[in-house]
Amino acid sequence: AKTKTLINPETSRVIGNSILGWTVYIVKCSDGTLYTGITNDLERRMAEHESGQGARYTMGRGPLQLVYQEICQGRGRASRRENDIKKLNRKSKLLLISADFSEKMKE
């Protein structure tokens, strides 16, 4: 049975017309570093990261906290957005996360 993607309104932003598709996400590792990735099943991917089966970078850096998610239409759009976010410096990533959270609090 396929699990549904967990969409947290406090950390998510929809890009395009649909809430279905690929998710760009940022997790905060226990050492304070940030990891950015994409997936088409966020719940599964977070479980993989937590179990040590996710990205090499997140291994041994748990527990992880999902701090940002952005839903994109299609893998190509998600990959481009992931690359854009990865090019940002840490301060800009934190501003992106806090701006998104502030926007959600206004709703």
Q: What does this protein structure show overall?
A:
With 107 residues, the chain is an alpha+beta fold. Helix content is 37%, strand content 22%. It is built from three helices and four strands. Strands 1-4-2-3 form a four-stranded mixed sheet, sandwiched between helices. A hairpin with a 5-residue loop joins strand 2 (22-28) and strand 3 (34-39). The longest helix is centred in the C-terminal third of the chain and has 17 residues, at 90-106. It starts with 11 loop residues before the first strand and ends with a helix. 23% of the residues are buried.
Rg estimate, integer Å:
13 Å
Molecular shape: globular
Overall pLDDT, averaged?
Answer: 83
Biggest sheet overview: 4 strands, mixed
Taking pLDDT < 50 over at least 5 consecutive residues as the criterion, the unreliable ranges are 1-11
Strand content: 15-25%
Q: What are the secondary-structure elements, in order, as H or E? A: EEEHEHH
Spatial strand sequence of the major β-sheet:
1-4-2-3
Helix proportion: 25-40%
Task: Figure out the total of helices.
Answer: 3
Structural class: alpha+beta
Could you give the distance between the termini? 33 Å
Number of beta strands: 4
